[in-house]
Amino acid sequence: MSEANWYVVHTYSGYENKVKANIEKAIENRKLQDQILEVSVPMQDVVEVKNGVKKHVQKKMFPGYVLLHMVMNDDVWYVVRNTRGVTGFVGPDSKQPVPLTEAEMRSMGIKSDDIVVDFEVGDTVTVVSGVWENTVGVIKHINTQKQSVTISVDMFGRETPVEISFSDVRVRK
What we know:
With 173 residues, the protein is an alpha+beta fold. It is 17% helix and 40% strand.
């Protein structure tokens, strides 16, 4: 059997949750649990201010799109493509959809590998590559989902937070 990958389908605007429900119903009805592993409409918490009142709400990260973790074959392609509200797979050719790469999934903060890091909040680190190379800072926050740390660096006499990838920092001994 082929390997499961993440694919993106385009939907009518505002139909993301309906498409998710319809695909999940098709999975159940057609017994495709071993081929379509996950259907996702990624959400993010946002603070909206209306009439001077702050309100925490959930917004879709990618309006008009639904993510699918599935094993691609003709049957699954047909079921997903012909789901009400789906306009097609994202990719250069809707007949042969292109899966998302691991890097794309990580950059969107959707797929996280189990990463063990040798640093923690409060550790002093040195940035080893990128724009902030050779900068020394103190870790203020660790985001395992995005695989990044927020460090506090001294810039123009002020403490400034900077987000850096795990791979770009080393703990100072």
